[in-house]
Amino acid sequence: MQREPIPLADPGAQMRLCEESMRSAFDRVLTSGRYILGDEVQAFEREWAAYLRAPYCIGVGNGTDALALALLAVGVKAGEEVITVSHTAVATVAAIGQIGAIPVFADIDSRSRCMDPTHLPGLISKNTRAIVPVHMYGQPAPMGQIMAVAREHGLKVVEDCAQAHGATLGGQAVGTFGDAAAFSFYPTKNLGALGDAGAVVTNDPTLADSVRMLREYGWRERYVSRMVGRNSRLDELQAAILREKLPFLDRNNTRRRLIAAAYTQALRTTTLVAPAQIEGTEHAMHLYVLECTDRPAFERFLNGAGITTGRHYPFAVHQQPAYAGRIRGSRALPITDALYRHLVTLPCFPELRDEDIAYISETLLQWGSQNRAKQGHAISPTAERVIR
Ligand SMILES: Cc1ncc(COP(=O)(O)O)c(C=O)c1O
């Protein structure tokens, strides 16, 4: 019997599981008569800040706006440089461009797949104003080293936490290390809304005040624009839904890690490279991304077995048509350039059934046994390309 393909993500499954509480959130908002920036938004801001142990949270329209508004609030001006990574969702770089700033790319570390802080000093110019590390796939970036470089050079740090809700570094939640942090609650994220939603988190009351004004025309009081702001408001329905789902975030992250552990165990007998386990960090496992030397054949094998796979991302940002050749100040990015060609994402979401996890693990083992003879080495494809 033909089995239904196992999807890469299934945000509908989570909504169906908590349909009752979703409906109660919907009813609450419907009858409240207030649909944007009301009590639900305020409550969610308090609850998300409390979860992270951060003093301030400001709900905004989406994760890209959260980054752009945080960058504006920390003082980045048009024409100034912001160092980030090219191995990220294009949104990180789009946000920098949105405020007229210039992205500069640091290479990544091949194990963490996050910003390699040793490259930062060589990229800093008199025009550099901020650093945006991305906690890629849910893996915390090395914030201690990044903050040390930033402080030494008087730079601001805005963490891109769009893929890392609940990830920790030394027991501390990501999003609480930098001057500010940006979260996305896009429906497939570890904490996902029913549409677009985002938030800025910060320890700094002045910065929080600026973001609050920037998200709504520069208003502190209605109709008085104290700064040139925008419209990036969080709506009540998204906030109410996020409030219903937040109590399940830790449990869902634990389930994601369990799925990841099953895949990693299966990969041990293959030459496929699992995400590294980095000491002192707790991965949010937003995406389970492995490395494979023979990607097209591996994808065909899995897809043929009814397992959907993904590529996050098909290109690094500096190779995207809109950005190619237009990134000023970047040096060579050998790890970034090598990595994206080998990445394959496997289904990893909390509602994935036990039998699907077992089936995917079994299929990985099968790939391993069929290819062991052909691939007599176990070096990371990334390392291999860079060494050559
Ligand atoms: C790393 C990263 N940064 C930023 C964003 C932007 O979030 P949003 O889609 O909510 O604008 C995303 C979401 O896709 C992301 O994955």
Q: How is this structure best described in words?
A:
There is one protein chain. The protein starts with 10 loop residues before the first helix and ends with a helix. β6 (168-169) and β7 (172-173) form a beta hairpin. The longest helix has 19 residues, at 249-267. α2 (19-32) packs antiparallel against α9 and α10 (249-267) runs parallel beside α13. The chain has helices spanning 11-17, 19-32, 39-52, 63-73, 90-98, 120-123, 143-152, 205-214, 236-245, 249-267, 295-304, 334-339, 354-371, 381-387, and strands at 56-60, 81-85, 102-106, 128-131, 156-160, 168-169, 172-173, 180-184, 198-202, 281-282, 288-291, 343-346. It has a 7-stranded mixed sheet, with helices on both faces. Strands 7-6-10 form a 3-stranded antiparallel sheet, with no helix packed on it. It has 14 helices and 12 strands. The radius of gyration is 21 Å and the shape is globular. It has 388 residues and is α/β, with parallel strands linked by helices. The protein binds pyridoxal-5'-phosphate (PLP).
List the helices and strands and how they pair.
Layout: H1 11-17, H2 19-32, H3 39-52, E1 56-60, H4 63-73, E2 81-85, H5 90-98, E3 102-106, H6 120-123, E4 128-131, H7 143-152, E5 156-160, E6 168-169, E7 172-173, E8 180-184, E9 198-202, H8 205-214, H9 236-245, H10 249-267, E10 281-282, E11 288-291, H11 295-304, H12 334-339, E12 343-346, H13 354-371, H14 381-387
Parallel strand pairs: 2-3, 2-4, 4-5, 5-8
Antiparallel strand pairs: 1-9, 6-7, 6-10, 8-9, 11-12
The protein binds pyridoxal-5'-phosphate.
